[in-house]
Amino acid sequence: MYEKIKRQADVQGISVNNMIYNQLQKQYGSGEFDYIVALDCLKQDAMEKDSYFCLWELPTFKNIEKMTNGSESNESPEQIRARLGKMFHDAVKNGQVYDVEIFTGKTDALHWKTKRPGRAVVYTKRQEIQEVLHDNTDELFAIVEQHLQEAINQ
Asked: Could you tell me the pTM of the whole model?
Protein backbone atom coordinates (compact mmCIF):
# COMPACT_ATOMS: atom_id res chain seq x y z
CA MET A 1 0.00 0.00 0.00
CA TYR A 2 2.85 2.39 0.83
CA GLU A 3 4.33 2.01 -2.66
CA LYS A 4 0.98 2.95 -4.26
CA ILE A 5 0.71 6.00 -2.02
CA LYS A 6 4.35 6.93 -2.71
CA ARG A 7 3.84 6.72 -6.50
CA GLN A 8 0.72 8.90 -6.30
CA ALA A 9 2.50 11.42 -4.06
CA ASP A 10 5.43 11.57 -6.50
CA VAL A 11 3.04 12.18 -9.39
CA GLN A 12 1.46 15.04 -7.47
CA GLY A 13 4.87 16.41 -6.42
CA ILE A 14 4.30 16.19 -2.66
CA SER A 15 5.50 14.09 0.23
CA VAL A 16 3.60 11.02 1.40
CA ASN A 17 2.83 12.74 4.73
CA ASN A 18 1.30 15.74 3.01
CA MET A 19 -0.76 13.57 0.70
CA ILE A 20 -2.10 11.50 3.59
CA TYR A 21 -2.85 14.65 5.60
CA ASN A 22 -4.76 16.14 2.66
CA GLN A 23 -6.80 12.95 2.22
CA LEU A 24 -7.60 12.76 5.94
CA GLN A 25 -8.57 16.43 5.92
CA LYS A 26 -10.97 15.81 3.01
CA GLN A 27 -12.42 12.70 4.63
CA TYR A 28 -12.73 13.74 8.27
CA GLY A 29 -12.03 17.46 8.46
CA SER A 30 -14.67 20.13 8.50
CA GLY A 31 -12.77 22.50 6.24
CA GLU A 32 -12.78 22.54 2.49
CA PHE A 33 -9.30 23.92 1.92
CA ASP A 34 -7.41 21.71 -0.53
CA TYR A 35 -3.67 21.84 0.14
CA ILE A 36 -2.81 19.98 -3.06
CA VAL A 37 -4.59 22.53 -5.23
CA ALA A 38 -3.03 25.41 -3.28
CA LEU A 39 0.44 23.82 -3.62
CA ASP A 40 -0.06 23.46 -7.38
CA CYS A 41 -1.01 27.15 -7.53
CA LEU A 42 2.14 28.06 -5.56
CA LYS A 43 4.28 26.03 -7.95
CA GLN A 44 2.72 27.82 -10.91
CA ASP A 45 3.28 31.22 -9.26
CA ALA A 46 6.93 30.29 -8.62
CA MET A 47 7.49 29.26 -12.22
CA GLU A 48 6.28 32.67 -13.37
CA LYS A 49 8.87 34.48 -11.24
CA ASP A 50 12.04 35.52 -13.01
CA SER A 51 14.47 36.15 -10.16
CA TYR A 52 14.73 35.87 -6.39
CA PHE A 53 11.50 35.61 -4.41
CA CYS A 54 10.01 34.75 -1.03
CA LEU A 55 6.72 32.97 -0.53
CA TRP A 56 5.08 36.24 0.51
CA GLU A 57 5.56 37.54 -3.02
CA LEU A 58 3.49 34.76 -4.56
CA PRO A 59 -0.17 35.72 -5.11
CA THR A 60 -1.54 32.40 -3.85
CA PHE A 61 0.38 32.68 -0.57
CA LYS A 62 -0.67 36.31 -0.07
CA ASN A 63 -4.35 35.60 -0.69
CA ILE A 64 -4.87 32.67 1.68
CA GLU A 65 -7.50 34.69 3.60
CA LYS A 66 -9.53 35.13 0.42
CA MET A 67 -9.20 31.43 -0.41
CA THR A 68 -10.43 30.40 3.06
CA ASN A 69 -13.33 32.88 3.34
CA GLY A 70 -16.55 30.96 3.62
CA SER A 71 -14.88 27.64 4.44
CA GLU A 72 -15.51 26.10 7.81
CA SER A 73 -11.87 25.30 8.43
CA ASN A 74 -10.65 25.01 11.99
CA GLU A 75 -7.26 26.28 10.85
CA SER A 76 -6.40 29.94 10.75
CA PRO A 77 -4.82 31.48 7.63
CA GLU A 78 -1.52 31.55 9.53
CA GLN A 79 -1.71 27.80 10.19
CA ILE A 80 -2.56 27.15 6.56
CA ARG A 81 0.36 29.33 5.42
CA ALA A 82 2.73 27.47 7.74
CA ARG A 83 1.69 24.05 6.44
CA LEU A 84 1.61 25.23 2.82
CA GLY A 85 5.02 26.91 3.17
CA LYS A 86 6.49 23.70 4.56
CA MET A 87 4.96 21.70 1.71
CA PHE A 88 6.38 24.12 -0.87
CA HIS A 89 9.81 24.13 0.77
CA ASP A 90 9.90 20.32 0.79
CA ALA A 91 8.81 20.22 -2.86
CA VAL A 92 11.60 22.64 -3.86
CA LYS A 93 14.14 20.74 -1.79
CA ASN A 94 13.14 17.48 -3.50
CA GLY A 95 13.32 19.03 -6.98
CA GLN A 96 9.58 18.86 -7.55
CA VAL A 97 9.18 22.53 -8.50
CA TYR A 98 10.51 23.04 -12.00
CA ASP A 99 13.47 25.40 -12.30
CA VAL A 100 13.29 26.68 -8.69
CA GLU A 101 15.75 26.11 -5.89
CA ILE A 102 16.59 27.44 -2.46
CA PHE A 103 18.97 30.37 -2.65
CA THR A 104 21.78 29.94 -0.15
CA GLY A 105 24.13 32.70 -1.28
CA LYS A 106 24.09 36.38 -0.52
CA THR A 107 22.50 38.98 -2.73
CA ASP A 108 23.62 42.55 -3.16
CA ALA A 109 20.17 43.80 -4.14
CA LEU A 110 19.22 46.51 -1.66
CA HIS A 111 15.50 45.75 -1.76
CA TRP A 112 16.14 42.28 -0.35
CA LYS A 113 17.84 43.69 2.72
CA THR A 114 14.84 45.86 3.55
CA LYS A 115 11.97 43.84 2.10
CA ARG A 116 12.81 40.33 3.20
CA PRO A 117 11.05 39.28 6.42
CA GLY A 118 13.34 37.86 9.09
CA ARG A 119 14.37 34.24 8.53
CA ALA A 120 12.28 33.94 5.37
CA VAL A 121 13.67 31.53 2.81
CA VAL A 122 14.68 33.04 -0.51
CA TYR A 123 14.12 31.00 -3.64
CA THR A 124 15.65 31.57 -7.05
CA LYS A 125 15.30 30.28 -10.56
CA ARG A 126 17.91 27.70 -11.59
CA GLN A 127 18.45 29.43 -14.91
CA GLU A 128 19.85 32.48 -13.08
CA ILE A 129 22.49 30.33 -11.44
CA GLN A 130 23.26 28.67 -14.76
CA GLU A 131 23.66 32.07 -16.43
CA VAL A 132 26.31 32.99 -13.85
CA LEU A 133 28.20 29.80 -14.71
CA HIS A 134 27.91 30.41 -18.44
CA ASP A 135 29.32 33.91 -18.06
CA ASN A 136 32.54 32.42 -16.76
CA THR A 137 33.67 29.81 -19.30
CA ASP A 138 36.67 28.74 -17.22
CA GLU A 139 34.35 27.60 -14.42
CA LEU A 140 32.11 25.84 -16.91
CA PHE A 141 35.01 23.92 -18.43
CA ALA A 142 36.28 23.00 -14.96
CA ILE A 143 32.87 21.55 -14.06
CA VAL A 144 32.67 19.56 -17.30
CA GLU A 145 36.21 18.30 -16.82
CA GLN A 146 35.40 17.24 -13.24
CA HIS A 147 32.33 15.28 -14.37
CA LEU A 148 34.30 13.59 -17.14
CA GLN A 149 37.04 12.63 -14.70
CA GLU A 150 34.46 11.17 -12.27
CA ALA A 151 32.93 9.15 -15.11
CA ILE A 152 36.34 7.81 -16.14
CA ASN A 153 37.18 6.87 -12.53
CA GLN A 154 33.97 4.87 -12.19
From this structure: 0.68
